[in-house]
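re: ur question from earlier - yeah i can do the single chain one, its not a big deal. heres the input i used so u can compare w yours
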Amino acid sequence: MYRILTGAAALMIAGMAQAEPVAPSDVMFDDGTVAASLTGVAGDPVAGRQVAMNRKLGNCLACHVNSDMSEQSFHGEVGPELDGVADRWTEAELRGIVTNSKMMFEGTIMPAFYKDAGYTRILDDFAGQPILTAQQVEDVVAYLMTLAE
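and the output i got, formated as tokens:
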């Protein structure tokens, strides 16, 4: 006999099925890539676009040109263009770059967005916290995967 769960019961079971996000110190890098999702939940490219353009979160436009965000002003030119990034990098590579780009590019000035320790001269309010949550990383990666030429 089968029962269809509805309402609160279905939400409770769905919530129990989701694992806790991987802690920043537990992220597994392989030559700079991160193959496994940090959350086990698919990223939302619409939410990722919002994080990427948010000057207080991803702030990707501070360093990167992105024609998909042409409505935004002041695109940086320090980092490579984001146009076509999904053609140049795999999802695992992009997850590694967003999580901690220094694991792939030695000496890069790109911040580690999912790291919570090892910083110098950090404000007390930000100590022990990554810039982005694990789900925000997954959302940004999902957005970047839409940027194919």
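Residues 1-16 have pLDDT under 50 and may be disordered. not sure if urs matches, ping me
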